[in-house]
Amino acid sequence: MPDACRSVRGLPVHPTPPGELCPVSAAVLRRHCRVRYNDGMRKKYLLLLGGSVVAVLLAEGILRLLPVEFSEQRLVRDGVLGWKNRPNWRCERFSINSRGFIGEEFAPRKQPGVTRIFCLGDSCVAGDYLARYADSFPCQLAAALERTQETGAAAKGSPPKRFEVINAAVGGYSSDQGLRWLRGEIVRYQPDFVTVSFGWNDHWLARVGGSDKQVSGSATERARAALSSSKLFQLVLKAYQSCRRKRNMPHLEQVEPASVVVPANVRVPPEDFRTNLAEIVDTVRAIGAEAILMTTPNYLELAPSGKRRELAAVFGSWETAEKLVQLHDRYNQLVKEVAAARRAPLVDGTELFRAREDVVSLFERPPGDFVHPSPAGFQILAEAVARTIRANAGKHGASPP
Fold first, then answer.
1. Using an 8 Å Cβ cutoff, are 173 and 196 in contact?
2. Looking at residue 349, which CATH number applies to its domain?
3. Are 273 and 139 within one domain?
């Protein structure tokens, strides 16, 4: 055999003495075997991955064909809004219509002679914590408008106008989500008035990923929304919750109110809150309607001094509660500033409650729940908004009641 290097099956070999076999280099052979082994494993992994993908897609397709819902949650993920009401959801207290608004169906185009009001806000406006949905702010606003209109019509001898109050609130919403909800959906339904009540969720701690402005519409949020819409994912989640004996309730980013004591790392920073409110007013007026801004009452601020011991027990100290009072008051002051700058109607819920001696009865479950008004509190707010609507009829194109 010649001394020059030859190759066996493409592998280089070293020169060998005459009469001896030419051994393949051990190092080269090991490298060749490792390459062959890696190629084989890579193909197996690719086949396994491809088979898994096909199996998941097949399972998802089969589950979507079945007339079964594995998620009973009222709120569903949304890539832009974060979450929203599940269309056609039902419970004992209320229902959600096909467009995601709380209440019955309504015509997309406003009927002649109808004054249409949308109530934009969070769980306070939605009526989430009330025993009866009829006691919610939108329902009481509709009743208050009917009463004021019937009285005025009787005095003038003319038939009463018709009102349509639509609950556009979603639990947990901030002003950022409200603005996106308004622009993306509400404006197309020709509102005459839009009541705006935000603040509490804006100054809670920021969600995972940053402020609402950073999170809403991000790639991460859209991916989470896409995943949560998968029936296979819902089935796996439900099975997991059943094993852990957990209730299948909406799970969104929630924080303990007592942990929010400084305006840092909040969902909507103060300047963004101001901008959101101003853009809500401008957006509503751009379609010929009028926005009515509202401040949100705080039991911590309005409770009698004799109740401070109870509140201190909730927060650990009265000093901690006072920090939250100052923070919430800062956001309420921004509502007033935007109303003054935009010359928009303002219903100061804080001052309306402050003027009442029975302030404790105006909240649903104080002192633990210092956020949500009671039916009596919503009645006060509804009557004030009804008066404001009558006073601002015809301005900026809003239809007179």
1. no
2. 3.40.50.1110
3. yes
End-to-end CA distance of the chain: 109
In a domain, 85, yes or no: no
Choose the final residue of a domain: 47, 65, 83: 65
Amino acid (one-letter) located at 259: S
Residue 41 pLDDT greater than 90, yes or no: no
Pairing of the two strands 11-12 and 75-78: unpaired
Domain that holds residue 159: 91-217+255-397
Q: What span, in angstroms and rounded, lies between the C-alpha atoms of 174 and 202?
A: 5
How many Cβ atoms are within 10 Å of 396's Cβ, its own excluded?
18
Which structure tokens are listed for 257? 């109110």
What is the enclosing helix (H) or strand (E) of 124?
helix 123-126
Q: Which residue has the higher pLDDT, 57 or 384?
A: 384
216 by Cβ neighbours in 10 Å (0-12 / 13-18 / 19+) ranks as buried
Query: Would you state the structure tokens that stand for residue 92, as one six-digit string?
Result: 């004992």
Q: Are 174 and 81 in contact (CB under 8 A)?
A: no
Nearest to 112, CA basis, from 153, 167, 161: 161
* Residue indicated by tokens 């479950």: 365
Looking at the fold, whether 116 and 48 belong to one and the same domain comes out as no
> Cβ(385)–Cβ(195) under 8 Å?
yes
For residues 269 and 176, what is the distance between their CA atoms, to the nearest angstrom?
10
> What average pLDDT does this structure show over 100-122?
95
- Structure confidence by residue, pLDDT tens digits, 182-224: 999 999 999 999 999 999 999 998 888 889 999 888 888 878 7
Q: Quick: pLDDT tens for 70-84.
A: 556 788 889 999 999
Please give the structure tokens belonging to residue 265. 């790392």
pLDDT at 253: 36
As given in the structure block, the two tokens for residue 133 are 């949905």
Burial label for 338, CB within 10 Å (0-12, 13-18, 19+), is: buried
Question: Is 70 exceeded by the pLDDT of residue 178?
Answer: yes
Do the Cβ atoms of 329 and 298 come closer than 8 Å? yes
Which sign, positive or negative, has the C-alpha torsion 394, 395, 397, 401? Answer: negative
